[in-house]
Amino acid sequence: MPSPLSTGHLHLSFPTHPPPRSHLPLSLLRPSHFPLAVIGVATCSQNDSLSSVFAQFNSSLLDIFPSDGIYPLARNCFVFEEGEDTSFSNGDNLPGLFILPSMMGNKKLYLGTLLADLCSQILGEFGVLVQALESPMGNEYLNSALLPTIPPLSEIPEPLNGLRKDSLPPLPSHNSQPDMTKGNFTLSAAPIKRTSSGPGFRQASVASQPVRKRLSTIGVASSHARLFKVLGDLFLLSGRPEDALVWYIESLQLFKSSQDHVWHAATLEGLATVSVIESWSVGNGLQNSLSGPKEPWAETCDKLIQATALYFKSPTSEGDPNYSLLSYLYVSCVLRHSSFLFAIWSAKGWGPLALTAMLQPGPKPYLPPTLSKDGNSWAHLERLSSVSGISRGSIASILSQIHGPWLLHLGARERIAILEATSGLYACLGYWRKEAYILREVLGCILDLIVCGREEDGLSRLSSLPGTSGLGIQGMSSSNGGGWGGVGVRVSESTDGNDSILELLKYVCKVLGINLDAVKLVEVNPSGFPSVVADENTPLNCEDYDSETFESMETYGWPDLQVGVVREAVAVAEALPDFPVVAQFALSALKTLQTVLSPGDQYHLYSTSARALATAQRRGDTKSVEYWSGRPVVSITLAPIPFPRLPVEKPISALQPASSTISPILAGGTDPFLYNPRRVALGEGKTLVVQRETLEFVAVLQNPYIFDLELQSLSLSTTGVPFESRPLRVVIPANSFHEVSLSGKALETGTLTIRGCRVQAPGGASREFMMPLLTSEEEQRLSRKRGALACEVDRSKYSGIESFPWEKSRKRPSRPSSTTTKTSFRFMECTVVPEQPFLRIRRTSLTHGALMLYNGEQSNIRITLENVSPVPIDFLRLVFDDSTIAPAQQALSEGQLTVFETYETEYSLIQRPVFSWNQEEVKDIHIRPGQKITLSVTCIGKVGCIHGTIHFSYSYVHREPPILHGSTEIFHVRQLSFPVMVTVYHMLECHALDVLPFPYHTSSVDDAVDDRVRARRGTLYVDDEASWCLFSIEVRNTYGSPFDVTFERSQKGAPPSSISATVPPGLVIPIQKFVLSEEQLTRSIPTLSDRQFVVQKSKLSDQEARSQRELFWYREELFKIVRGTWRETGGTRFGELSLRQQRMTLPMLETLRLENARVQLSLVTYNDSLVDEDVLTERDGKFYPPAEEFVYLRSTITNTSSSSQVFIMDMDLEPSDHVVFEGVLSELAVGRLESGETREIDTAICFLSKGRFEISAEVRSYEIPWSDTSRAGIGHLIAIVRSGDAE
User: Fold this and answer.
1) Which tens digit of pLDDT belongs to each residue from 50-92?
2) Partner of 228 for a Cys bridge, out of 251, 421, 630, 1176, CB 3.0 to 4.6 A?
3) Alpha-carbon dihedral angle through residues 1230, 1231, 1237, 1243, given to the nearest 10 degrees
4) Quick check: bond before 72 cis, omega within 30?
C-alpha cells in the first residue's frame, strides 16, 4: 500500500534482476516480463555531490538495461542524508532525484507518497507508449515481425493530432467504447475514469457493440489485433481488468481469422489472468464457488490449454532466432497452467487461499497451510485431491509437457528457472523421483554456467601464462625463460554457491536411495583428529553401540541408475572443485552401494577419494572425512603375557609363616560343592600388567572390499593411567581378516581401560571404535535384535520416501523407544602394578634338563639364578609340581578310595614329594640387580614320575613406602619355571610282609658254619623270646643289576640292629613287641589334607572300627621301627626302600602287640611224695610226655601291664576226647596280680593215647566283659605222646 491515506489495492512486484537482453523481443508481447520502473537508493554526506550520485545512478542503469530498450518506463533515485549536519538544496534541477532529509520524522509516509508518484509516472508512460504504437510507424513496427521490438520513443514521430510527448495522454476507459467510425477518434482521446468493479461488470462490458472500423491513421496492410492485445496488457498492469477484458476480446476476435498463433496464445493467457483477478476482486471468489454445473476454474483452464496448443503449433524452425523465445513462452504457459491448478489443489478448492497462493508464484511460492515443508504423507496428498476435485496426476500430466527438446533452446538462466519451478511443483505434489529427475537437469545447467564462467573469466587458463595439466593449476614451462620456469600458480577459485549445489546434489541422490552423507565431513586439526572430540569418559550405552553395530546397509532403488548418479555426483564435486566432498561422495557410495558396485567401480571410487584427500591435504583444507569402512575392528584381545613376565597377586599374609601344616599340594585339591561361587570369582581374576613394560594387544581387522584397504594410523584408545603407544600403518588385504599387534607401555600404576581403537584412513579424520566386553546376556540381546531385524526386512510395505532405508529404520518395531533405560557397557581393564624384578636361569647341574633315578634314590639339583632387572629381589619361594600329583589329586577328589588308600595317597604326596628344598637357604635373601644366587633342590625317585617342574616365585616386597606397614594388603610376584624330564627305574619290589612269633628253638651261634651265618644268628638272638617277634619281608629284584638291601631296626628299649642281604633272599629281623596306649588307639585315622567332608562309604560297627584303627596305628608304629634301604652292589648309588604298599593283618597285629599277661605252659611230673618235681624234656619247642600217665600242666601267668588286674583263664586241649583232666578247664580263677607278679596253676591231665596234642591257655581280664579286647595273653604247647619203647 503506497500511502496510508489512499484506499484500494496496489500490488507491486520487486524483481531482483532484469530479464536478459535476449528477451528484448518480448517487450511488446509481454510487458509484465520487464521492470516498469527502477528505484535507486543512495546515501550522501556533506562531502558528496548530488550530481555525481545521480550520474552514477544513470550509468548503472545503462549497464543493466539496453540503451535501445523502452524499459524502464520510470526511474527515480532516493537519496538519504547522513548525519544531522548534512543538508542539500532541493534537487529540482535533477529530474528523478529525491532527497530525504535526515531530520525528517515520518519517512514512511513520505516514501509512500514517492511510490505513489512513481506509479503515476508508470501509468503516464503507458499512455505515451500507446500513443507511439497507434501511430502508423508504431503499428508497422508492431506488426513487422513475429516478436517485434520498438525503437526508443524519441525516434517515433509525433502524432498527427499535435499532442506533445511530454504530456501524459490518458488511457481509454471501458465506459467509452471505441467508436472507430469517427475519423478524429484516437486511443489517447478516451478519458481516464476509475469505476468500481461489481458483479454486473461482465454483463455490461461484453454487451453488443457497434461495428468497429480501423482507425483512419492505421495503414491498410497492418492489423490492429496486436495493438488491442498490447492495450489489454497495459490496462491489466494498470489495475483495470474491466478495460483489459474488452480489448482482449476485441483482439481475440481478430486473431481467430489470422495465423498469428503466438499473439493469439498470449491474448488467451491475458484473458485467463483477467478471470482470476475478477474472481479475487468480486468477493474473493466465493459467490460462484458452488454454483453452476462447471467448476469455477474450468473456463480459465480451457483458455490456458488453448494457449499451450497455439504456442506448440507455432510455425517455427530450429534455425529461427525466435525459437528460444517461443520455447520460453510455451513452457511458461504450461507452468502457469500447472501453477494455477496446483494453487487450487493445495488450497482444497477454489477460494481465497487459492487466490493468495496465485499472487505469490516463483521459486519460493506461497505454500498453503495444507502443505507442510517437511513432507506430506501419501494419504494426506490423496485427501487434498479428493477435497479439491483436482488429482495430482492431472497436474503432473500437464506439468510433464514442459520437458522436451525445446528446453535445450532456452537460455541457461531461463532453463534453470523453469526447471526449478517444475521440480518444486513435483515435490509439493509428492512426486519426489520426478523432482529428482528434473533437479539433475538443473545441476547440469548450473555446471554448464560454471564452466562457461571460468572460460570467460580466464580462470581455466590465463592467456599470459602457458597452460599445464591439473585442475585449477596454472604453471609455466621452463622453456619460456624470463624467470617463470618451474613455477606453478594456482588461481584461487570462488566457492560461493558450492554448498548449495552440493546440498541439491545430495538431495537428488537421497531421493534415488543414495545417502551421500553416510560418511560425514568433519573439521580436523593438523594431527588428524576431529576438532570436536567426544569425552572419553562418556560411557557407551546400548543404543549407541547398536547403532554402530547394526548400521543399515540395506539397498534401495535401481542399482544401474544409482551407479550412474554416483558417477555424476563425483564428477560435479570434482568440477566445482571441492576435494573433501569428492572424497565424501566416493566413500559414501562405497559404504552404501558396495553390494551393487562392480569391482571396477569400487576401485575407481576408492582411488578417486584417495587422490581427492591427498589434494585437499596438500592445499591445507581443514575439512576431511570420517572413517568410512564400517567397523574395521572385529575384536581386541590382550596378547598372552609370557609366563615368566606374568605378575601374580598374593595377599600379604603369604609372607607370614603358615599356621597350618596342610600341604598346599592338597589344600584346595578337592571341593565338596558342585558349584562354588567363591572359586568362580577367584578364577575370573583381574588382568595384571607391569608398569613400563611392553604390552601387546592383538586386533583383528576386516576388509570387505575388493581392494587392499590402507589405514594411515591404527592405535589403541585408552583411558585411566597414561599409556604410551606408537600408531601403526596397516594395509588390510582385500576380502580378508587381518591380525595386527599393537604395543605400548603403561607409564603409571592404576587401572588401564582399553576402550577400542582409533582408526584413520589416509587423508581422513581419526575415529574411535569402541569394543566393549559383552556378557552372555548382552550377546543374547544382540542375537535377538539381529534376528528381529532379519524378520523385519521386506515385512512391511512402505511408499514414497518412507521406503528409504534410513526412514524405515525409524519406524521399525525393534527400534528402542526413548523411554528405554540406557545401560552402559564394560570395557577391558588391566590393573597396572609397580615395576617388578625379572629372574632368569643362568645354569643348572642337569644335562639337557633330564634326570634319571632309581626308585627311592635321592639326588640334588643345583640351579643358578640371575637378576637381570634394575629392581632388587627380597622375596623368593619355590613350589614344585610333578606328574604324580595330578592323578593323586584326581583320585582324592573322586572320593572312591578307602580310608587306608586315601591316607597312603596323601602320605605319598606330602611326606615323599619328588622335589623338595631347604627354605633356610633363602632366609633374609636380597638379590641386587645383576647378582647371581645358587639354590639346591632335592629330587627323590618315585615310580610313575616322568616329568616335573620347579617354580620360582619372587618379588620386591619391601618397597618405599613399605608394603607391610602400609594400607596395601597385597603384593605381586613373578614366577619362573624350570621343567625337568625325569626317568625312574623300578628295580626292587617288597612283598610277603609278615610278623611271626619268636621261636623257642633258636640255633646256637656257636654252631654257625661261617661268619655270615654267625652274624645272622647273632641278629636273631634275644634274651626273652616271649617279648619278641620276627619281622619278615621278601624283596624281588626286577632290574638287571644286583642290589644290596638292608633293614634297620630302631626301637626304644632295644639295641639298634640291622640285617643285609643281596636280593633275592628274604630278610628277617626280630622286633620287640609293644603296646599302644588306649588314647592313641581311640584316635580316628587322620587325613593329611584335613578334608572334613570325607564320609565313610559303609557303616562299620564299633568293634570293626576299633580293629581298623588298631591295624592302622600298629602298622604306622611298625614302619617307624623298621626302615629299609638299598645300595647298588659295587656302586655308589643308594636309596630308600618303601614299605608303604604292604598291608597288616589281624594275626600280625596279635603277634606284634604285647599282651597284658604273659602265659607260659610246661609239663611237669612229681614223685610219690609230691614234693620233688621234674620238668619233662622239651626239644624244638615240643614236650614228650608218656601215655596213660598223669602229668601236670603248669600255667605260669605274669602280669606285664602297669596296673594290677584280676585274671581268669580258659584252657583248650585238642583232641579233647583222648585227654583226661582234673577239674574244669574254663574260667579258672587266677586272682589279682600286681604289676610284674607271677602265679603258677597246675592242672593234672592224662593222655590216653599216643599222638600229637595241642594245648592252649587264654588269660582274660575279669573286669572287662568277654570280647577280643578282654584277652590279656595266650600260651601254646605241643605235646608228642609216644610209647615207652619209643621214648
Assistant:
1) 888 888 888 888 888 887 788 888 989 988 888 766 666 655 5
2) 251
3) -20
4) yes
